[in-house]
Structures are given as C-alpha cells and as structure tokens.
Specification:
single chain; alpha/beta; Rossmann fold; two-stranded antiparallel ribbon; 5 helices; globular
C-alpha cells in the first residue's frame, strides 16, 4: 500500500520567547537559539530524501524552513494558509496587556477557541477549515513521497488531531515544543498513523508559550 510521509515541524524558538505573548499572525522573527534548533533538526533528518519543503509565510516559519532547505539543497514553498491561528485584537500583546486592554478577556480560556474566537480572531474550527484543504492538496501532489512542513503550534495541533481522529476540542491536549518533529504516515486507503509526536533532537527543551 502506498504511503506518503509528512515530517511536520514547529518553527524554532522566537525572539522574545521568554515573555508570554500572543503572536498569531504577528510576524516575530526566529531567534538565535531557534536557528540552532533547526540546525540540529537539519542534521537529524539529513538522510531523508524529501519531495518538497513547505512553510507558513510568516518569518519564524520561513526562516526555520530556509535553514533546512539550504542544508538539503531544496526550495521552500511558502503558503499563507499555513499561518498560525489569527488572534484578532490580541495579536502581539502579552497576557498582562490583554487583561488590561480587554476586560472581556477575563475568564476566557483557550478551550473557548473551539467555539469562539478572541476579539475578532479565528476559532479552531475556522483554523481547521483553512489548514486541512491545503494539507490534503499537498499529500495528493506528493503521493508516495516524503514531505517536510514547517508550521506553528496551533497549525500542527490541528493536523495531528485530524490524523488521530480526535475532535478539535482536544487541541490543547497535544504539546508542540519549539523545533519539535512529528511524523505522520498517510496511506492510500485514507488511514493515517502518527509515528512520532513532539519528538526529534529538540523535544526535551520545552517552550514557554503556545503560539
């Protein structure tokens, strides 16, 4: 049976990662430690022959993907549909700034994202509707090959929930550390199998924020 393997990566550690901040579409850059994380991944995956490398078009993912692509002699295909969940008026703010500027945020938990967005942002259902058609198109295009994709914590969680047959409300039960590697096999009969979750050479280094 034909198998298409997706190597799904979260971008590396970003500038200002130590301060909890809602980045979403906010275009923060990859930090120096993030670059080192991707170099470790590049070495770790150096023996894999990839059909293509895809990335979100936000800087932190693009820069991460380019580190891999340069090492492997590949090009990066950038897609806006792979951007992180859009967090509306909270974009780029710290948790304290959100609490100060938006009284409506009091009592909000990220479990609420399954059914409603934050002050103009996307819901998890809307994120899923944006991401999954792109994933299915990529899998069809590279059927039987190995595909590398560098995206975001939220995007990766959507893909993993779908692959494991989990409802979107289980989104936050899945950890995605900076620079982590997930491996998913997609079979020609429609079955999918998660071979590796939040692993790779950087998986035990942790992260301080979700997005």
């Amino acid at each position: 049976m034909e198998v298409t393997r997706l190597y799904l990566i979260r971008h590396g550690r970003v500038v200002g990662h130590e301060e909890p901040r809602y980045n979403g579409h906010y275009d923060v850059e990859l930090g120096e430690e993030g670059r080192r994380e991707l170099m470790r991944l590049s070495d770790y995956l150096g023996g894999v022959e990839f059909s293509a490398i895809y990335s979100s078009d936000l800087k932190r993912s693009c820069e991460s993907a380019l580190i891999l692509a340069e090492s492997w002699g590949k090009e990066v295909r950038k897609l806006s549909s792979l951007r992180e969940i859009y967090l509306g008026m909270w974009e780029g703010l710290t948790r304290d700034e959100v609490a100060e500027r938006f009284p409506s945020a009091e009592g909000f938990t990220f479990r609420d994202l399954a059914t409603r967005g934050v002050d103009g942002g996307e819901t998890l259902q809307e994120l899923r509707a944006r991401v999954m058609p792109t994933i299915m198109d990529i899998l069809r295009t590279h059927r039987g090959g190995n595909v590398c994709m560098v995206a975001h914590g939220g995007v990766n969680r959507v893909i993993l929930c779908e692959a494991m047959g989990l409802g979107i409300e289980n989104f936050f039960r899945i950890e995605q550390d900076y620079g982590c590697l997930n491996i998913i096999d997609y079979f020609s009969d429609g079955f999918s199998l998660v071979k590796l979750l939040n692993g790779g050479p950087n998986h035990n280094m942790g992260s301080t924020i979700i997005y």
